[in-house]
Write a structure and sequence with these properties.
The chain is mostly helical and about 425 residues long. The chain folds into two domains: about 65-200, no CATH class; about 215-435, Orthogonal Bundle (MetI-like fold). The protein is about 65% helix and about 5% strand. It has 19 helices and three strands. It has helices spanning about 5, 10-60, 75-80, 90, 95-105, 115-120, 125-140, 155-160, 180-190, 200-205, 215-245, 250-265, 270-285, 290-315, 320-325, 330-360, 365-370, 390-395, 405-435; strands at about 65-75, 145-150, 195. The chain has a three-stranded antiparallel β-sheet with strand order 2-1-3. Helix 5 packs across helix 7, helix 11 (about 215-245) packs antiparallel against helix 16 and helix 14 (about 290-315) crosses helix 16 (about 330-360). The longest helix has about 50 residues, at about 10-60. The radius of gyration is 32 Å and the shape is extended. It starts with a helix and ends with a helix. The mean pLDDT is about 90.
Length: about 425
């Protein structure tokens, strides 16, 4: 209605119109504010997630590179094979630490004194001696020869080269001495210092020395633990969901089971760790700190999630599918096995992967069953001592060495990569196999 028409209205109608217009204006303003609040909340969430990822990546990407030093190494037969028989046992027991120290002294022949020599030896990691041993075992003809090798630097030198240690500080305020700075500068001028891909980080287990620490043991432990979890939780969870949806009678006992399943999904994960400690370890005697007991504990934790997701997938199957199969003479078991389960399987698999992703990121229940122990060896079976990626992150975060900070963030990046892959697999399964009726 235009203004002239509105001007000709009776006063009562004019007041009603103004009141309605004011109410509409308030409602539109409230709607705009609500949209703005929602947009601000979404942007804030994205901002915090972006800040988290940038913080982790900026701190941890340097863990994927390692500093190496090129040293001329002479494999002195007197230190490696004094008897000269070149047997594998004799070569394995050789003094490769002495060979390494001798090579470093020859690189800087003017260094004397126990304190200065100790600082000189600290340019290269102790793991370099084992690397030299492996090279000799692969090629015994190296004994008596002099070769150039790129050897892994110590954690302090590595942090200095990466810029994590400020060399402008006074000597007493940094872990690298002025002598070591001079030796490192001399090696750099001779093109004997180089940063390379840190293969040790992906091929070694845990270690007390940061430059020797890797995530392979935690990756294998996580894989074995999740394998046990998947093999147990998925069949049991699907069977429970099928029974509750298709066969269970509607009574108080069934209602009690459903309520408890929903409540278990909200129980703190550490409670499952206490249950696993009391039942699986103390009562059944399952080996402590093993992927087997870890998988059993995580199975208890993921079962409610898988059951709830599987029930939702079964409910999504149209009743007409069941009615058509029953009308053709199929039994209840045949209806479920040949029609309901195949159609609900994509949703069940999605729920299982989401449950596995949650289990991969859990550390609290595994701490209760001893998987917090220092494990340097790579687990070879389900009963070997092992750790998992979240626990490895927890252990490294508690270490005082500066280099473990980037190892911690690097392990978090690996863990996030696993989680992203598993969640992406869930999305792909959902879109690939989802059917619409």
């Amino acid at each position: 209605m235009n203004k002239p028409q509105a001007a000709g209205m009776p006063p009562s109608q004019q007041r009603i119109r103004e009141r309605v217009e004011r109410g509409l204006a308030r409602r539109y303003r409230a709607e705009r504010r609500f949209r703005a609040y929602g947009l601000m909340a979404a942007l804030s969430g994205l901002l915090f997630v972006a800040f988290l990822f940038l913080s982790i990546i900026s701190t941890g990407y340097t863990a994927f590179v390692q500093t190496y030093v090129r040293i001329d190494v002479r494999f002195d037969p007197e230190l490696i094979d004094p008897e000269g028989n070149r047997s594998e046992e004799a070569l394995r027991m050789g003094d490769y630490g002495g060979v390494l120290k001798q090579a470093i002294r020859e690189q800087f022949p003017g260094v004397e004194g126990r304190r200065e020599l100790r600082q000189l030896y600290n340019l290269v990691s102790e793991i370099a001696a084992f690397d030299l041993r492996d090279r000799v075992l692969d090629d015994p003809a190296l004994v008596g020869q002099t070769r150039e090798f790129w050897l892994i630097a110590s954690d302090d030198i590595d942090q200095l080269v990466k810029g994590k240690i400020d060399r402008a500080l006074a000597e007493e305020q940094r872990v690298v001495s002025d002598l070591q700075l001079g030796w490192l500068d001399a090696l750099t001028r001779d093109d004997r210092v180089e940063r390379r891909f840190n293969r040790v980080f992906f091929t070694a287990g845990d270690s007390r020395e940061p430059e020797q620490a890797g995530v392979l043991g935690a990756i294998v432990g996580s894989f074995l633990t999740l394998l046990v979890t998947l093999l147990l939780s998925f069949p049991i969870g699907v069977a429970a969901a099928v029974y509750l949806e298709e066969f269970a009678p509607g009574n108080r006992f069934t209602d009690l089971i459903e309520v408890n399943i929903n409540n278990l999904a909200a129980v703190p994960s550490i409670v499952f760790g206490l249950l696993g400690l009391a039942v699986f370890i103390q009562f059944f005697g399952v080996p402590r700190s093993a992927p087997l007991v870890g998988g059993l504990v995580l199975t208890l934790m993921t079962l409610p999630t898988i059951i709830i997701a599987s029930r939702a997938a079964i409910k999504a199957v149209p009743p007409s599918i069941r009615e058509a199969a029953l009308g053709m003479g199929a039994s209840q078991v045949q209806v479920v096995a040949h029609h309901v389960l195949p159609l609900a399987m994509p949703g069940m698999l999605t729920g299982a992967i989401i449950g596995m992703a949650r289990a991969l990121g859990e550390s609290a229940p595994l701490l209760m069953i001893g998987m917090v122990a220092f494990i340097a060896d790579i687990p070879a079976s389900l009963t070997d001592p092992a750790t998992v990626l979240p626990v490895q992150v927890f252990l490294w975060a508690d270490s005082p060495e500066r280099a473990f900070l980037e190892r911690t963030s690097g392990a978090i990046i690996v863990l996030l990569a696993f989680l992203l892959v598993m969640n992406a697999a869930a999305v792909v399964l959902r879109h690939r196999f989802e059917r619409r009726w």
